[in-house]
Amino acid sequence: MSNTLNIPTRKILSVQSHVVHGYVGNKAAAFPLQFRGWDVDALNTVQYSNHPGYGSFTGFRSAVDDLRSIIDKGLTGGLGIRYDAVLTGYLPSVDALRDICELVDKVCREQNIPWVLDPVLGDRGRLYVDMACVEMYKTLLGKCTVSLTVPNQFEMETLTGVEISNKDRLKEAFARFHELYPGVQRVVVSSIDYSRGANASTGTSTVAFAEMTHPQAIQYYTFDKIHAHFNGSGDLFSALLIDMMYPEGSDTTQPLYMDAFALAVGRCLTLTHQILNRTYNLTVPGPATSDFAPTHALDTPHIRDLKLIQCRDLLSVPSDKILIAYDLCEMH
Amino acid sequence: MPRLLATQSHVVHGYVGNKAATFPLQCLGWDVDCCNSVQFSNHTGYGMDRVFGNVTTEGDLDALLGGVFGNFSMDYNAMLSGYLPNKESVRCMGKHYSEFKKKNKDLLWLMDPVMGDEGQLYVNEDVIPEYRALALSPDGLVDIITPNQYELEILYGKEIKSKQELREALKYLHKTIPVIVVTSCSSNIFDDKSNIYCVASIRDEDPTIFQIPFIDSYFTGVGDLFSALLLDRVSKYYADRAPNLKFEYQINDIINVIQRVLKVTRSLSVTNIKSKMGDVKSMKNMELRVIESRDLYHTVPLDGHGFSQLDFTTKNYIHGML
Questions:
Q1: Do B291 and A9 touch (CB under 8 A)?
Q2: Which among B23, B34, B50 has the least Cβ separation from residue A20?
Q3: Which end of chain B has the lower number of beta carbons within 10 A, N or C?
Q4: Which domain covers residue A76, as residue numbers?
Q5: ipTM exceeding cut-off 0.85 for this assembly
Q6: Strands (E), chain B
Q7: What is the CATH number of the domain that holds A264?
Q8: Interchain proximity B294–A18, CB inside 8 Å
Q9: How many domains are there within chain A?
Q10: How does residue A249 score in pLDDT terms, banded at 50, 70 and 90?
């Protein structure tokens, strides 16, 4: 087990949603990052009783003016904090999206620090936000400097207009993304299922990524899908990816070598999967069944809460001790 | 996994309120559901002109707690309430917590009646009757309170000038509240500037005095960390059917944890200057090192040596009985 006393903390500003109960948004990101030695300044864009996956929820959005003044008058202004990274996730309105992203873009460029943007638009064919937000994301990605973005398959499809039904189409999506959004340095597309929408599922998923200086040099890991739908898994993935991509002592302003990038994605994927597997085993009665092909989509269990607190032992493993469980592949 | 609901302040930067309570409790195995009574950029010690953000309105807090208790009515083992910014929010928290506690008698409610310190109120006066009503409710809904002496005097309704008067105040409040920890007593009882005196009392037992060396620095969030740890340790104390755990040793254990966290905080500070209110540099420097203390929140038995880098020998802070 690592000892946090030896490790100077890294600092991150994480701008995401907050739920009182459960683990999505900042609640999914903060504890894993803190446990791995990050001082997490969590700025909450909304405060809800729980995520909408429960059917009903209560709560409110933070006012855009408050969010903006907390960052520019408070954190970076009055307190003069210099972060090692900034993460933006769910922003509940076009105004919040535009104002906060423009501010974060300015801060990150001035301070030369990485901005990790999770384009929270939707999942599995369904939008969480209105079309105006989609257009705003396109505008922002077109003009801002973003170190890393982590769309899921649906978000990558929405942002590029390319449906990802096979490897060639994936290559096309990366090329299109680079054309449209040249200020984005790295892209990691999580959980690609080429057979999505088709009748028979392959039972595997792919995480594909590229340094956008070479958008044709796409690397990927393929792994067995866990037969469940998890709320918060994407937020956990992006948080852990930041931890792996920007380790203590690294110069976060320098480009990563491609193998360091692949290593970071592989370790993040491995740890995320360990946590999802344990969550599955603690939630669904009976043994984990990722060995078996799913029968019907309707049978897919919906797991609403990640068991993050029960995964402290997994979260305490230092990055260089995580053995990547998948083969690294390259597209030609 | 035990689950707890905590309603108190949230600061984006630094460690007070829910930011001071949540991570340590998560490290101890609690699922912590945080309901934020405010969202501020940082705590007020940086100077009021440097605090940005907003107070959760009564209507929003009411809807939020209604949604939480409505959707997760079976889930909680404990509830914590700390800083609430005004009368309306105290009343709203009190209403929801009371209703829930009446239906779930076994869960523990720790209320930190945050009102002021050393004769100075830092909330509006109209908050006082709300806290008094909750503390003195004949239903006896609150299980644990963590006032400082000034806050104890407000709840008691009288000034406390001697050990005898302190005993009477504790006896009076024990009619409704089983566990009372007075986190710091004032100099009119213990006239000793080099130590802080804390008195812990559980109903039907003699109160214990703890003597803690005074550190001449301005740390914020210590009280919030104390309350969080107290809720953990009292839960374990009540859950311990074979009574291995003595109440006073649970308190001693908490004081040891806090001393270790303060030691880590000072050892990682750039300088050990006495911090000044309103001075950004020293305020940032004195934020509790909650993250670096990740492995220090667990119980270490008396005379246990769990750590090598710093002298973390567990000490006995028990000074005697009140």
A1: yes
A2: B34
A3: N
A4: 4-330
A5: yes
A6: 3-11, 31-40, 53-55, 78-81, 108-111, 116-117, 120-121, 144-145, 179-182, 195-202, 208-213, 318-321
A7: 3.40.1190.20
A8: no
A9: 1
A10: confident
